[in-house]
What we know:
- This protein has 518 residues and is mainly alpha-helical.
- The protein has helices at residues 2-32, 37-75, 78-105, 107-114, 126-136, 139-155, 160-164, 167-180, 189-212, 226-241, 244-256, 263-298, 302-329, 331-338, 346-361, 363-372, 374-377, 383-410, 415-440, 450-471, 475-480, 483-507, 512-515.
- The longest helix is centred in the N-terminal third of the chain and has 39 residues, at 37-75.
Amino acid sequence: MSRLLRSGAVISAMTxxxxxxxxxxxxxxxxxxxxxxxxxxxxxxxxxxxxxxRLFAEGAFSLAFVPVLSEYKEKRGQAELKDLIDHVAxxxxxxxLVITVIGVVAAPVVMWVFAPGFASKPSARPDLAVEMLRxxxxxxxxxxLTAFVSGILNTFHRFAIPALTPAxxxxxxxxxxxxxxxxxxxxILALAWGVFFAGLAQLVFQLPTLTRLGLxxxxxxxxxxxxVSRIMTLMIPTLFGSSVAQLNLxxxxxxxxxxxxxxxxxxxxxxxxxELPLAIVGxxxxxxxxxxxxxxxxxxxxxxxxxxxxxxxxxxxxxxxPATLGLVLLAKPILATVMMHGEFAWRDVQMSSLSLMTYxxxxxxxxxxxxxxxxxxxxxxxxxxxxxxxxxIGANMALNVLIVLPWYFSGIAGAHAGLxxxxxxxxxxxxxxxxxxxxxxxxxxxxKGWRVxxxxxxxxxxxxxxxxxxxxxxxAWWQTASTWSRIGWLTGLIALALSSYFMAxxxxxxxxxxxLGR
Length: 518
């Protein structure tokens, strides 16, 4: 597990750089662009290709491609491996080009499908949203090819470059917001063009590493290629099974378009803070274990498969539970410190904090899905996750009806937070069913010691929660304090949370090696 831990640490470190830049990007956008119809228009226009990226590129395609690529790597020669890469590149590029052209031409229809209530709001900007969607839609072409290259690099244990690549999106968008916006009559159009050029930059950034491996693809098309056919067969159901959380977020965007203006932006900002630990822990673990589990399955090494799953689950639980509590406890302090500058007002902090707290409730579930799902995909079983995924989507829709509608019709502000809570609870439905079927099919059985492990983590979380709650200033202080005072207090509270949690674990007799899941 040491090699996996080092690889996971590399991905987490690179992801941390990207996410910190992402927070800086959001701070700059919030500073220069008020939360209004124009920013809602941009986030809808950005979310659509970004959703497709997660569904197709990082979700369905990667989870279907990496197991087949790993099998070719383990069992076949270099020539067959290169032939697979060439033909996957050819088919992928062709399909993406067609999707991109359709998306650009049919942008008004796509916008209506994804945000049907957007045009009905007096201060909404549906025409601007369509214009920006036409600019941002080619991002799906660039970033999907980037994910294709990342899958190859990860299979060959080159994790750092793919993990650092998303940082380029934030760098380019920051430059667009600060230096590009003044050159546009509609300043927010600069952000849309930033998305376009960031997608191209991310693809180019990875090509030198791929070239050094001797695997730079030649785009080829051959009918009935065995490897491509298998990947396509696996990919179709994986579209649902791998991306339930993203489909739930899409449902939230659709429903939020009917709520108060600003709801889409508030959900976006709160989602960004939940995405930080999810990417650093969940995505990192899922990325490093998928090639390993695929290799273990190809070698028929059931013992190593079990050990890898157990290690990833322990590490995921160890980090996700305190992270969940930390986001709930510090929602307003985080948003006030990071986002409350320029046009981002205290009311935006209050509204965003409601959805941040309810999103955060589901963080552990989201992370567990990232760890559990590769247990099926590595075995090229896509049917089970897709069935579970459909159940989770149904649960999310039912929970939206049960939670959001009463909230909305009561007239109480913050109905968007109900959307976040429904997504969070649906995440646990997804994770719970994945775990149940892994055990039922005897793919994974937890090792001894889990009950004591969870009790110690629970006790440490209680100690951390009590100390952070007692040490936190009142809301009124966060509203009026200076920026540097807020930064100082928030840093201190985070340090207190981390130190108290791990100190409590140590006092409860959990050794450092066990904390790392080793």
